[in-house]
Each structure stands twice: as C-alpha cells, then as structure tokens.
Design brief:
By secondary structure, the chain is mainly β. The protein is built from no helices and 18 strands. A hairpin with a 2-residue loop joins strand 8 and strand 9. It comes from Hymenobacter mucosus.
C-alpha cells in the first residue's frame, strides 16, 4: 500500500534536540505539534470539479536553558480555500488561497497575517507515472517567498514508489508487505512568525533527510515513525527589517540576514505521524 497520496487528515508530534553554539554551548529542545485537514466540498454533478477547504495548525514549544534565544513558543494557523478541476482523465488543475496567522500569540494583530496562493497542474502520463508543477507566492516575515515545485509520482515496480514535490518533499518507499512500508524521505520547511518583542520575527527553516517505517492500520489510516537529520536548519530571530531579498521555496537569494541569537546547530529530529490518506492523481 506504499503509494503516492494526499492526506485528508494528519496529526504529528516531532522532537528536535537542539544545541546553541558558542564557547559555552547549551542544549535544549523543541516540541512540534501539527494538525491538518482538507476536504472537497460542493462537488459538481459529474465530480470533475470541487471546492476545497482546509485548515493547518502548527505549534512549536521550546524548553530548557537557552541564553540568548528569546522564543518560548510560536503558533501558525493556516486556513485553506481553493478549487480543483479535472480537465481530462489525465489533467487536473488546482488553485489555492493560503492566508496565514503566524505569531507568538502574545499580542495578536493584523501584522500577524500574511497572504499567498498557489496554482498546480497534475498530469498522469500513464498508470504508473504522474507529474506536477506548482507555482505560487507567499508573503513571509523574512521577505517574499516564491513557490516553484516539480512533482513526481512514479511506481517503479511492484514494491518501490517515488513521489514528492521537489525541492521541499520527496519519498522513496518500499512496500515490505501490504500493510508495512519503509524508506527514505526529505522534508523541507521555510516559515516565519511575528514576535511581540520589537516586532522581530522568528524563522523556522529545515531540510530534514531521514528514514521511516510505517504501518497501515486500515486501508486509509497510516502510522509513520521517522528519524532524520537536518542538512539545513535555521531557528533564528531577526530584526523586522532584516530580510532576504527573496526566497524560492526554502532557498534564500541575495544577502543573508543576521540573527540576533546564537546559532542553533544542525542535529537530529524524531517524528511520529498519523494520517488518513487517499491516492493522488
């Protein structure tokens, strides 16, 4: 049952053991909680088109001694609304609006809101292979973020499948049995949160490469455990006007802003996720 999929519902918990660099390095941790749901509504009579509504929640909480690192917790709330249209048996088009409220929630105001959107084309070239192209734009506290994702879902054989939207996600999965799979995955994140303190912002950027094992509890429900390492990691606070000129997905372009906190070193991450999945186009 390892396959390319979309998640109708997802819940996850992640632990990040962290270490501040410097002459007297300190260790602390982040606990990351995520929940997301998306569902089609108001489908057309022939089911070729439907509106999409959804909601994502992310909460990061930091604990332990961390001198010079002024963040206790941040929260992101991301509503989603869009429309999906199947143009032909091979081609599907989707447009999504992506507003977000990202904040430490100490003084919520309009400045915590950002806006964005993406359009996506999905094309199935054969029963074993499909491609996706996603283009979009999002306001971020670290500067403008342009979205350019190249997606693939490729059934490589009876047991192997590769799928994802590069450069932010990629999975290579091996189905050991109808209910058990294992493999390699990449997960990239680049988001930011406004802080009450002097309107600074906190950037959370990661590029985690890891291995996973997952069990299908039923036809749609899957439980996955992942152990990963951060090839790229940024957990930093910046002054309000110190921004990237632009980013493409999680790749910064131009002069890099300077954090006000000690550098957080690269390190491991451990994640447990439960999801309800349906097959992707």
């Amino acid at each position: 049952m390892a396959q390319g999929y979309v998640e109708g519902l997802g819940l996850s918990y992640e632990i990040l053991p962290l270490r501040l660099s410097g002459e007297a390095p300190r260790t602390f941790r982040a606990d990351v909680y995520r929940a997301n749901v998306i569902a089609p509504v108001l489908a057309s009579a022939d089911s070729s088109g439907s509106a999409l509504v959804g909601l994502s929640l992310e909460h990061l909480r930091f604990s332990g001694e961390r001198p010079g690192f002024p963040v206790a917790s941040v929260t992101g709330l991301l509503p989603l609304i869009g429309y999906r249209q199947r143009v032909s048996p091979q081609l599907e088009l989707t447009a999504l609006a992506l507003p977000a409220l990202n904040s430490d929630l100490r003084d919520v105001k309009a400045a915590d809101l950002t806006w964005g959107g993406v359009v996506r084309a999905s094309y199935r070239s054969s029963a074993r292979r499909a491609y996706r192209l996603t283009l979009g734009y999002r306001q971020q506290f670290y500067g403008p973020q342009y979205v350019l994702l190249l997606g693939l879902d490729w059934q490589l054989g009876q047991r192997w499948r590769a799928f994802g939207d590069l450069p932010t996600t990629f999975t290579l999965s091996y189905a050991a049995s109808p209910r058990l799979a294992a493999g390699f995955n990449l997960n990239g994140i680049n988001t930011a949160y406004r802080l009450q303190d002097r309107n600074r912002y906190f950037q959370y950027l990661q590029g985690h490469y890891g291995v996973f094992v997952e069990a299908y509890l039923s036809h749609h429900w899957a439980l996955r455990a992942t152990a990963a390492y951060s090839v790229t990691r940024r957990l930093d606070v910046f002054e309000q006007g110190d921004q990237w000129p632009a980013t493409i997905d999680y790749i910064g372009l131009g002069n890099e802003p300077t954090p006000v906190n000690p550098i957080v070193e690269k390190g491991p991450a451990f994640k447990l996720a439960l999801s309800y999945r349906v097959a992707a186009l």
